[in-house]
Design brief:
Blueprint (H helix, E strand, L loop, with lengths): L3 H8 L1 H10 L1 H8 L9 H12 L7 E5 L3 E7 L2 E5 L6 H17 L5 E6 L4 E5 L3 H18 L19 H5 L1
Bound molecules: iron/sulfur cluster.
The site of iron/sulfur cluster (SF4) has 12 residues, from α3 and α7.
């Protein structure tokens, strides 16, 4: 039987992929269970949006293999709902990771990212380039999270809305 920690690690891999592209320090802090997410207004807004968007969808928060959580599985597609497209690359790679994971299980899907506030969407396909990119990303996550100290804080636009702001800059 797989040990609990390795199951949890896989379960949170989608978020880790996202954080890798947002901020490597954030990824490291999250991987060490240092979390302040529920105190962040932006995170709360994202959760509210997630709850109230697409009420007709019946399959929401689908947990696959007890490992990865996918927002909505609709028309055979994997769908993520995001508050804004500011972190587009991070959002894309998170969904690509889900598609990659499902492919390992012999399931082929397309990905959709919905930005309901902006009334737009991104349709994604797991290409060979994306597969290579996700493999490299998984290796990098392993390398960063194995470090004993966090990557240094680098000021960037998103810091102000990051749940770790006080921790990094307070
Ligand atoms: S506050 Fe900025 S540097 Fe600190 S974890 Fe968040 S994004 Fe990274």
């Amino acid at each position: 039987m797989e040990d609990i920690q390795s199951i949890l690690d896989l379960r949170f891999q989608g978020i880790k992929i996202n954080y890798l592209y947002v901020c490597k320090r954030k990824l490291w802090l999250f991987s060490k269970n240092i979390t302040f997410e529920n105190t962040s207004d932006k995170v709360l807004l994202g959760k509210v949006l997630h709850e109230y968007s697409y009420p007709k969808e019946t399959k929401r928060d689908v947990l696959i293999d007890n490992l990865i959580m996918i927002d909505i599985l609709s028309d055979g597609n994997v769908r993520e709902v995001k508050y804004s497209s500011k972190m587009k690359e991070a959002d894309i790679m998170q969904v690509i990771y889900y598609l990659y994971y499902l492919k390992q299980k012999g399931i082929k899907k397309h990905g959709i990212i919905n930005y309901p506030k902006e009334k737009r969407k991104e349709v994604l396909e797991l290409t060979a380039e994306y597969e290579e990119k996700i493999k490299k990303a998984l290796k990098e996550i392993e390398e960063i999270t194995a470090r004993t100290t966090p990557p240094p804080a680098k000021k960037q636009k998103i810091c102000k809305s990051c749940a770790y702001y006080e921790f990094c800059w307070g």
